[in-house]
Sequence to fold (465 residues):
Amino acid sequence: MSPSTPAARILVVDDQETNVQVLGNMLGVLGFEIVPVTSGEDALKRLAVRPADLVLLDVLMPDVDGFEVCRRIRAQPALAEIPIIFLSAADDKTFIVRALDAGGVDYVTKPFNQAELVSRVRTHLALKQTRDRLRNLAEDKDELLGILAHDLKNHLGGMQMSAQLLHDRARQLEDQRLLKISSNVLHASDQMFSFVKEFLANAAADRGLTINLTPVSLAAAAASAVQHHAESARRKGLALHEEYPRGFPLVLGDHAALDQVIDNLVSNAVKFSPPGKSIWLTARVAPDGRPECRVRDEGPGCDGSDLAAMFTRYRRLSARPTAGEPSTGLGLSIAKRYAEAMNGELHCESEPGRGATFVLRLRFPPEASAS
Amino acid sequence: MMRSDWGELVAKLGEIQAGDWVTVRDGGAISETKALGERLAAMGRAAGCRRLASYGEALEREAQAYAVAGIAARLNDFPMLVRSIAEENIAATP
Fold:
């Protein structure tokens, strides 16, 4: 510990005050900030006021025992990563397993060797500091990249508009060379724009999804996706079919998340379908009674290794977009995370050469299930 | 500080009761408890308030000894101590 860093705060929990005193004296003299308590309830109260950097926790205590204190600490996101070292006179292996299962990082039996305990405390504090530093670095990196991506998106929007004007002008002038150059600029800026948009959606999903589950319409989300991709499908000569049973009930989902999932699936199908093929969007009630939306294409399909990696971020599959469309490897991973955030699931059924079907399975609202 | 200056002492104790005392009582850190004890003892000695000085010294001793129950009881007594010093000050005012 350097003099400039604040002392690590250690919560010492033991129902025997003499034990607390021994531990307090031993660690306090080394410069640690000691918070002593003699019950599990008091430990939780202290942590609610200010988190500790490490907890030394007795196992056998009246009222709330160490296992329960540990579980309650782990259940609170703000405290969940505090290292907890159990201290107990019981060296029964089942106790040790229970302690580690409850979320303890270490178990020291009493009477303990002072040097050993201090060494374990220092090791777990160092690990926590490293984890905290890594998390902070990752957060800083995400924030910086987010700012860059937002700025880039604005500039790319301007670039796209200028390239489109140039392209239109080249067409009027029938200037083939300018037409080719402006097409290249448009294509490249489209790809960059698409990547930036997906990067931002991915960053938003990483920050934690804000999902508001309400009854929503699958048909409306599908219609919106079809409308969004109608032009790109038309350019490739693809037919988009929507097949929804009349009066299909509302499902439990989040408007924005459901739109994003179905949009990503349709976008994927359009990108990977060869010209002249069809894409079907259908809805049905699955055999398990849950509502299901399927997006089926007649693209190249996938083998087992593609299926295994399909929802992994930045993973590009063996198939390539058939018209050189941008593919970032983020769309499907975002769709899966959104599906799961809506208590649903997303999977792909496919065989090489036989197209792919993406199946989004959600839930009906509770009242609809009951009826 | 003379006894006639206790008005200032009572005001400072009121501030401590609203701030540092709450932090120490709820946070439970030994170093903060000890620092509060030292501060109160010094204030008591400077103001010639024997009860406050004794209180601060006792809190400091208990913090040094990691006496959890003693610290909790001592901290709980603080508002009563402040009130009684305030009442004594009013009674002594001509």
